[in-house]
Design goal:
mainly alpha; about 0% strand; about 80% helix
């Protein structure tokens, strides 16, 4: 059983990393997003959403059939609310994903524990890094979009992204708890493919729990649509 799980894990990681590299190559070829931060968001998102993120990258550039139809029928830049919410969630999720990846490797490499718990350590480090990177990502988006001074831009970034960041980590941390206490008698470690396959699934869980929060924030105008 574990053999086949390991095979699936390697296949999933290959698809995720491969999709990310395709996006990077496409960006280097000159197919870049007007909002510069999305040139980072889409490759990071592809690490866990794979071909779906690749499709989203092309659609956002106006290279997909759906996007072309939208421009013809609704006018350039007019996206339905659900698309705006999905874009906002990928943006939020990219900061969280990078924070989780850096945090997981850092905690594993140092062998650090809090109260003897590796999972609790992962939670605290991951959340701190994810929150920091998420706010930076939002700051780099909202300042040029609204032409804000840095101080006000930082406050706006904190105000509009905290809810979505917390929602993402709730899904992510819930899945990590299942990975540690429910799915395995001996949980996998960050130097194993199965661990990162499970983290891919955890990031998808985080995406799903963050999507309603971003939908609410965009719909109410608290978070600017991208």
């Amino acid at each position: 059983m574990y053999y086949w799980l390991n095979v699936i894990a390697w296949a999933s990681l290959f698809v995720g990393v491969g999709s990310s590299l395709v996006i990077v190559v496409d960006l280097l070829a000159g197919h870049r997003h007007k909002m510069a931060i999305m040139n980072i968001v889409w490759p990071v998102t592809a690490l866990y959403l794979g071909p779906l993120a690749l499709w989203g990258h092309w659609e956002s550039l106006g290279m997909g059939a759906d996007d072309k139809a939208r421009k013809q029928n609704a006018g350039v830049g007019q996206r339905p609310l659900w698309q705006k919410a999905v874009l906002a969630t990928t943006h939020c999720g990219a900061g969280c994903t990078l924070g989780d990846i850096i945090g997981e490797w850092g905690v594993f490499a140092m062998g650090a524990t809090i109260a003897g718990s590796m999972l609790l350590t992962d939670y605290l480090v991951d959340f701190a890094l994810a929150y920091l990177l998420g706010i930076i990502f939002q700051f780099l988006t909202i300042v040029p979009m609204k032409h804000l001074p840095p101080g006000k831009g930082l406050w706006e970034a904190i105000k509009v992204d905290t809810l979505s960041l917390v929602a993402f980590e709730i899904g992510m941390f819930g899945w990590m708890a299942l990975m540690h206490f429910g799915f395995f008698s001996t949980p996998p470690k960050p130097n194993q493919a199965v661990y990162w396959f499970m983290m891919q699934l955890g990031m998808i869980a985080g995406f799903l729990t963050s999507l309603p929060a971003n939908w609410f924030l965009v719909r109410t105008g608290i978070k600017p649509a991208m």
